[in-house]
Amino acid sequence: MSHVATVDAIQTVKELFEKGVKVHVVNMGLVENTSTGKLIFNVMSAFAEFERDMIVERTQEGKAIAKQREDFREGRPKKYSKKQIEHALELLKTHSYKQVEEMTGISKSTLIRAKKKTKH
User: Fold this and answer.
1) pTM for this one?
2) Helix or strand or coil: residue 33?
3) 59 backbone dihedrals φ, ψ, rounded to 5°
4) From CA 3, how far away is CA 53, in angstroms rounded?
């Protein structure tokens, strides 16, 4: 949740309080429209936002450290090697997508994407 979403959540709870609604916050319990209830809610919201910011910061730091490695590659690792894809595309010349998928385990959508790439 971003800072804006946190502010929206606080605003929503304030509006609910004004309507006489008691808010049950998971892991926190019932928060009522009292000075103490509002204080607790605002402090918990601030900590939640702080925790999210820290997670983002640590993720960015981890990525920066990982990028220093020579073998760093962004994104998910490839499931199939170039050789496996080429073999599957070769099989497509004489077999259907379904047959090639059954033989290689490579899905039809992956084969279609690979086929499009080789045309360019």
Assistant:
1) 0.42
2) coil
3) -65, -45
4) 9
DSSP state string for 41-110: HHHHHHHHHHHHHHHHHHHHHHHHHHHTSTT--SSSPPSS-HHHHHHHHHHTTTS-HHHHHHHH---HHH
Residue 115 pLDDT level (bands cut at 50, 70, 90): confident
Q: Dihedral (C-alpha) 49, 52, 57, 61: value to the nearest 10 degrees?
A: 170
Cβ(18)–Cβ(53) below 8 Å: no
- Nearest CA-CA partner of 30 in 46, 50, 44: 44
Q: Which residues pair with 91 in a beta bridge?
A: none
Specify the higher pLDDT residue, 55 or 21: 55
Largest CA-CA distance found in the chain, in angstroms, rounded: 75
